[in-house]
Amino acid sequence: MAGRLARLGLRRDVDFVLHLPLRYEDETRITVVSDALPGVAAQFEVVVVSCDIVFRPRRQLVVRARDDSGMLTLRFLNFYPSQQKALQPGARLRVFGELRDSFPGGEIIHPRFHVVANSDADSAALPTSLTPVYPTTAGLGQATLRRLIDRALARGDLTDTLPADALAKLGLPAFSDAVRLLHAPPPACVLEQLESRHHPAWRRVQFDELLAQQLSLRRAYTARRARGAPQLVANGTLTQQLLAALPFRLTGAQQRAWHEIACDLAQPHPMQRLLQGDVGSGKTIVAALAMLHAVEAGYQAALMAPTEILAEQHYRKLSVWLAPLGIEVAWLTGSLKRRDKAVVLEKVGAGDTVLMIGTHALIEEGVMFHRLGLAIVDEQHRFGVRQRLALKEKGRFAHQLTMSATPIPRTLAMSYYADLDVSVLDELPPGRTPVSTRLVSVTRRDEIIARVRDACRAGGQAYWVCPLITDSETLQLQTAEDTFAQLLADLPDLRIGLVHGRLKGEEKAAVMAAFAANQIHVLVATTVIEVGVDVPNASLMIIEHAERFGLSQLHQLRGRVGRGAAQSVCILLYAQPLGQTARARLKVIFQSTDGFEIAREDLRLRGPGEFIGARQSGLPLLRYADLEDAALVEQARQLADTLLTDAPAIAQAHLDRWLGGREEFLKA
């Protein structure tokens, strides 16, 4: 039993108190059979007329029962001898279930029932509150959970952790009143208000959960600022040389973000800043300026990217920018030959190389930095928590900059990223052409192939993105290898390339280099090209089975085109029939090119766990609070700051109740 309860996170009395119902059943009233509505769960009191085992179409127990208004059929497809014995003619039953009108008089499949003895007043009495239905796990029944939760409510500490003046100001009920009502609502409660979680009692629980999250993250933020870190004071010589050599000027947003980062790096506590911006907003140059700042201050800097293609893109771009300044950039990935890797590690360990770009290889055990002052993690949500922390720990007191091309909605930034400082690149560099998006059925593939031929003959290049590499038995999708073979046959006068995650690093690099040099007309690829690929001449993107991709992924892929002067088009090929969620995703991506608006919709459609990569990180999701409720998030944030300053004991009591030792998950 303890093991089953632990799977639900139920160990302390307060864990049971905070294990709140998914929904409710109304067993406080009896419905007569003639008034029952099909599809609506109700409770009936009936007397058994007959009880028979039938064998067609399969073995089952069929019970006929009635009240004064009509007949009801109860059907049990799986049953025990004890149930058959209890359901003998003449037995008076209290039955709960959803009526189906497929049988004369209506029937209920597998109803919940108990025998009511006329002489037993307790068994005949109706409950005085709605019956809660809790989240559970295999081997743990509702009756057991209800009993354990009732026991916890009776003996648990339900003392309020919010000051009375805060409760009054926020208009929230007392904690004890809220949880008691949610576990046992009186029949007068509006069921829709309870189940949609808009009842004031739910509001209190949602606020408390958000407050615990804010307290934990703000406390982590304060604790980090109390730790020492090297002050990276720079004279600006290298950064000014780079800015003077660039063929473009920084946008206002880039200048603002760079100023915020430079100020952080000069502080005596570790920077923990998130640089977020839409596809193509120019995060790489801001990262390059931050790395140069560290070098000017006498420290090393490292940038870690989730894929070899993205890491190599950063390496090539930074090398072009920094080589004229006399700065060597090291390159480290898992595919590097052992001898080459040893040379790189020796130079970085001795401090001879000051900048390092790479993949997860940067956090391997043998990688030692001489004096790491700045750690940058690109596409941070694609790394697990331990991976993100491991790079930072290579330099014990290093400053950390994380970057994301997936814009983060304001409520998410206020909640999950409350321990970070955030810089936003909210304008695109001049010269970026808007990308036109088209939705096209897969039945018109021949027209699309003709369009690709015309675009490439006119001097352009195209991407063709597929969701799988080879055939899958479970998903009959157009695969990258199939598409590659088909395009070779249909476009014999064009050069076609293929790149996917299973290719060796040098093979991938060779194909990408050929595409960048316009030696390949059409690049067939999986989502390895989602981020970091920059080929200005490519102005056409076809995404196969677009209905299978997430919104942010579609937006990232679309961002691979529109990087030059030519009008760019992204064609989303979809297969019918489209599900409701897929239809909603494609509608959003068709109607909007604003990454922040798309991110808001993505959050709404997918939920915060998928959106920020929490599934792979161990981050506990909010169970009850709604991140779209920006006002409640803001109120929790304000009270958290007040409590941490003026009432740290109350803040600790609140954290103990809600997190109970699991606070480390949030800090990561």
Give a quick set of tags describing it.
668 residues; alpha/beta; OB fold (Dihydrolipoamide Acetyltransferase, E2P); Rossmann fold; 4 domains; seven-stranded parallel sheet; six-stranded mixed sheet; 26 helices; disordered C terminus; DEAD/DEAH_box_helicase_dom; ATP-binding
Which helices and strands appear, and what pairs or packs with what?
Layout (H helix, E strand, L loop, with lengths): L1 H6 L5 H5 L5 E3 L15 E14 L5 E8 L2 E7 L4 H6 L5 E7 L8 E3 L2 E4 L5 H4 L6 E3 L8 H14 L8 H7 L4 H9 L7 H5 L4 H27 L10 H9 L6 H14 L6 E6 L5 H14 L3 E5 L3 H15 L6 E4 L5 H13 L4 E4 L13 E7 L6 H10 L4 E6 L5 H6 L5 E5 L9 E7 L3 H13 L3 E5 L14 H11 L5 E4 L5 H12 L5 E4 L12 E6 L7 H8 L9 E7 L5 H12 L3 H12 L1 H4 L18 H17 L1 H11 L4 H5 L1
Descriptive notes:
The chain has 668 residues and is α/β, with parallel strands linked by helices. The chain has 4 domains: 2-23 and 134-196, no CATH class; 29-126, Nucleic acid-binding proteins (OB fold (Dihydrolipoamide Acetyltransferase, E2P), Beta Barrel); 237-425, P-loop containing nucleotide triphosphate hydrolases (Rossmann fold, 3-Layer(aba) Sandwich), CATH 3.40.50; 435-592, P-loop containing nucleotide triphosphate hydrolases (Rossmann fold, 3-Layer(aba) Sandwich), CATH 3.40.50.300. α14 links the parallel β11 (329-332) and β12. α9 (200-226) packs across α24. The longest helix is centred in the first third of the chain and has 27 residues, at 200-226. The chain is globular. Mean pLDDT is 85; it is low at 611-620 and 664-668. Residues 458-604 form the Helicase C-terminal domain. One of its GO terms (biological process) is DNA recombination. Belongs to the helicase family. RecG subfamily. It holds the Pfam family Helicase_C. Keywords: ATP-binding, DNA damage, DNA recombination, DNA repair, DNA-binding, Helicase, Hydrolase, Isomerase, Nucleotide-binding.
